[in-house]
């Protein structure tokens, strides 16, 4: 089992049913996106620390610095007697697209950017920051950039406000922090000189059947020093396929009980559904645990 919202939920339900549960985590701290993705101004790390302590008190065992595919394998776990395995690794393959042929260290993926903040590794000289995306992670990235000392922060989203996947409260909080919104705007390229971003080129869009369509002759440029991609993530299909686990369209394939094509191996969270939230991830973990418990009971 790998910890995160889905993994924690699954572990808790299984332990409540009397199962022996061990959580394996590749990082030094536990919690997955709760620890390394969501910034502390949205989720106090004390809450997460208390949660992990409570899980330990319930008898759930924790092992960190254990990474599936490196120093941990499915075969190892089965040899150690683990009958069921729940995978909650998260969608680790961040989506981006090409903006320039030049090299620069000021184009970030949102997960890397947020992890640096959560590890207290401040990024200097952000300058004018452009966040590409319209989900909750885009707003977390933008508000984090403000706290890292960015001069100005803009969120550029190719659709309109009504189609934006982020919660309205995220928009309100971001605006209160000083983040500026640019709806129906798509970033097409970035001009880079001597490793530094000079400006970005954008195009305005119109909405047709909820899709963003470029408006001809509406191109414009905008000053920017840093770009953060926050346009979603997918499961690492090559990684899972090498394990023998089927995937499709960037998701791990599971049945109604969240079991993969391999008997006894389950998956949840944003490995199995797009635009997953913490609440939805928790729901998948609970449903998988329920299926595991019911299956165990039927075998007894």
Which properties best describe this structure?
three-stranded antiparallel sheet, 26% strand, 2 domains, FAD/NAD(P)-binding domain, 300 residues, alpha/beta, five-stranded parallel sheet
Q: What do these coordinates show?
A:
The protein is 31% helix and 26% strand. It is of the alpha/beta class and 300 residues long. The protein folds into two domains: 5-92 and 233-299, FAD/NAD(P)-binding domain; 96-229, FAD/NAD(P)-binding domain. The strands form six sheets. Strands 5-12-6-7-8 form a five-stranded parallel sheet. β9 (185-193) and β10 (196-208) form a beta hairpin. The longest helix has 22 residues, at 278-299. The radius of gyration is 21 Å and the shape is elongated. 40% of the residues are buried.
Helix coverage percent: 25-40%
Order of helices and strands: HEHHEHEEEHEHEHEEEEEEHEEEH
Widest beta sheet: strand line-up: 5-12-6-7-8
Give me the number of helical elements. 9
Sheet of most strands: 5 strands, parallel
CATH architecture of the largest domain: 3-Layer(bba) Sandwich
Total number of domains: 2
CATH class of the largest domain: Alpha Beta
The backbone outline, from C-alpha atoms, is elongated
CA(first)-CA(last) distance: 23 Å
The value of Rg in angstroms is 21 Å
Q: Using DSSP, what is the number of strands?
A: 16
Per CATH, what is the topology of the largest domain? FAD/NAD(P)-binding domain
Mean pLDDT: 94
Bin the strand percentage: 25-35%
How would you name the CATH homologous superfamily of the largest domain?
A: FAD/NAD(P)-binding domain
